[in-house]
Design a protein that fits this description.
Elements lengths: L6 H28 L7 H21 L4 H22 L6 H4 L2 H23 L4 H32 L2 H31 L4 H5 L1 H15 L13 H28 L3 H22 L3 H15 L6 H13 L8 H10 L7 E6 L5 E7 L13 H10 L3 E2 H5 L5 H5 L2 H5 L3 E9 L2 E9 L9 H64 L3 H27 L9 E4 H13 L4 E6 L3 E4 L1 H18 L6 E8 L2 E8 L6 H6 L16 H11 L3 E7 L3 E9 L1 H17 L1
Parallel strand pairs: 7-9
Antiparallel strand pairs: 1-2, 1-5, 3-4, 4-5, 6-8, 9-10, 10-12, 11-12
Helix pairs in contact: 1-2, 1-9, 2-3, 3-5, 3-6, 5-6, 6-7, 6-10, 7-9, 10-11, 10-12, 13-14, 19-20, 22-24
Length: 705
Amino acid sequence: MIPAGQPFLMLFGFTGYLAGAVACVIAGWSIAKRGDRNRADRTATMAAIALTAIWCTLGAAFGSNAQFSHIAETARNLAWIFLLFRLFGNDGRDESVRQVRPVIVALIFVECLQPILLVIETRFAITAGLLALTKQISSILHMLVAIGALVLLHNLYAGAAKPSRHLLRWSALALVGLWAFELNFYAVAYFTGQDPVMLEAGRGIAAGLLMIPLALGSHAVAAEMQFRPSRAVAFQTLSLLVIGAYLALMMLMTRSLAMLGGDLARFTQVGFIVLATIATILWLPSPRLRGWLKVTATKHLFQHRYDYRQEWLRFNATIGRPGSAEESFDERAIRAVADITDSPAGILLAPNEEAELELVAHWKWPAIEVPAVAATAALSAMLEEQEFILDLDEVRGNPTSKAFADVPDWLVQETRVWAVVPLLHFERLVGAVVLARPAAARRLDWEDFDLLRVVGRQLASYLAERAGQQALMEASRFDEFNRRIAFVMHDIKNLASQVNLLARNAEKHADNPEFRADMLVTLRSSAEKLNSLLARLGRYGSGHGENRVRIALHELASSLVGRFAKTRNVALVTSTPAFVLGNRDALEQALTHLVQNAIDASEDGAAVHLNVGVDDGNAFVEVIDSGQGMSPQFIRNGLFKPFVSSKDGGFGIGAFEARELIGAMGGRLQVESREGIGTKFIVRLPLAEAGEDDGRKEASIGKVA
C-alpha cells in the first residue's frame, strides 16, 4: 500500500492505473476492429484485456490494496492463464493442448486460493503475526503462478514451428512482461515483508505498456503452431518446477516455525533441513525415482512417449561405438534395445539349425539361468510369422493363450523378464532380445511396440550383414584350404603309385626270399596307410550316408576309452547297450575328435567321462570334461567355425569335422558349457531299429513303384 505521506507516489500510481485502463480500452478496440477473427485466442484475449481494464480502474479509484482490487486482480490473472491455454490450441487441434491441461488446472487452483486468503486476512488475522503470515503465503502463491506461467510460455514459444514464431512473438512478449513483473513484485514483497511501493505505483502503467505488443500480435494471420518442445527442455523445466515448489515449501515451513519462537522453533527448523537433505541424497540418485519422474512427465506432457530423433541417434551411437573395450557387438546390440525402454539388463537369443533359440550373449545379466535350448521352434515360428513382441506380464496373466503354451517355463517363472523383441530380416528370424524389467515398473503400450519393432528390424539387418561377412570369410578360407589339400592329394597319389610300383618290381627282382618277404610287408603296409589317408582326405565335404552298418555304440565307446586310458584319465561311467546305423570309421573319428578336445581342455590328470544311453528313440554319447568351459559367444560364433580355435596353434577343424560327420549320419551334435565349470558334448544318433524300419519302408515303396 502506498503511504499517505508520499503524494508523488500516490499521484504516480493513480495516473499509472488510469493510463493502464485507457491503454486496455484502446488495445481492445484495436483487436475488435483489426484483429484476426479466426484466431482461437481472440475471445480469451478480449476477456483478459477487459478484466485488466477493470482492475486498473479499481486500482485508480480505490487503490491496489482494496478488496475489490484484489478480487479483480484474481479475475485478471485467471483470464491471462486462460489466454495462455488458448494460445497452445491455436493450431485448431485438441491434441495440442491436452499435454498442458494439468499445469493449467494447477495454476488456476493456486490462483483461486487468493480470495480465501483475502477472507482470512480481513476476518481472522487479528494479530500482526497472523496478518504477516497471510501476506507471505499470498506472495508465495502469486510467485508460483508467475513461475508456472513463465514456464508454459517458454514451452509455447520453443515448441512453435519456426514460420510461426515471428507471429507469436508479440503475444508471447506481452505475457512474459506481465508475469515477469508480477514475479518480481511479489518476490520483493515476500523477502522484505512489506509491499514495494515503487513497483506497486508502476503496476498500472506497466500493464498499459504491455497492451501494445498484445494488440500488435493480434493483427497477423495465424499460422499453424504445434506444441513440439524437446524432451530435454521439458524435463529441465519439470526439474525447475520441482525445485521451485521445494524452495517454496521450505520457506513456508521456516516462516511458520519461526512464529513458535524459542529453542523449539530452532530445533524444528534444523531438524527439517537435515531430514530434507537426507531424503534428497537418498532418493534423487535412485534409478527408480528418476524412471518414475521420466514416465510421469512423458505421460502427462507429451503426445508421444519417445523423442524418436534422440532415440535413433542413441541407437546408432551404441551400435557404432562400444561402451568398453571388452563389450562385444552382441552385447552392444542388447544395450541398444535395452536403453530405449530403460531396461537394466538383457540377453540375446539366436536360432540354431533346428530353429530352436539358444543363448548368444548377455548384457549385465550374468546370473540368469538359461537352458541349453532356451526356446523351442514353436516360439521361433510365432515370433517370425507374427512379428510378435512378447509382453511377459500379459502372457503370465493369460495361462490359456497360445503364447503361454509356446513360451518356455523359465521365461514365465523368471519374473525379471519383461519383454521379448524379435529381430527379423526379410521376414526371417535372426534373433530375439529378452529385456529385463525397468526400475520404474510400467506397462508396454502401442508406442513401445512400434519403436521396438522398427529397432528390431534395423538390428536384425546388422546381425545378418555380420553373418554374411563371416560366411564370406569362411568361404575364402575354405577355398585356400581346398587348394592346399588338392596339392597334398596330388603328391600323395604320386607317392602311392611309386610305392605300388616298387612293390611289384620287388616281387620280380628280389632274390632273397626273406628280404623279399619283409620288403613286401613293409611296402604293402605303407601303401595301405597312404590309401587310407587318401580316403579320409577324399571324405571332406562329402556325405557319409552310404554303406551304413549296425554299430554297437557302447562297444565303440569302450574301445575308445581303452585306447586313451593308457595315457589319459578317460572313463566310461555309464554304458547302456545301444545300436545305431552309420559309418563306423567316421563315427569313431568324430568321437576321437571330441575326446581329444576334452583332454586338451582339461588340466593334467583331470578326468574325462563318457556316458552311453538311450533317450526318446535316440542313442547318445556324452563326453564330459571339467575344463575352463566356453562362453556363449564362442559356442555360437567360434566353436563350429573352421580355422577358429581356442587352443594355441589349433587349426579349428576337429569340432567342425565331428559335427559334419555326425550330421551326415542323421545325427546331431549338441554342446552345453559353463565358464569355469566345464563342457559336455552330446552325440545323438537314431537307434538302429528305427533306421532299419525306415529302410524297409523305402525298399517296399520302391518295389511297388
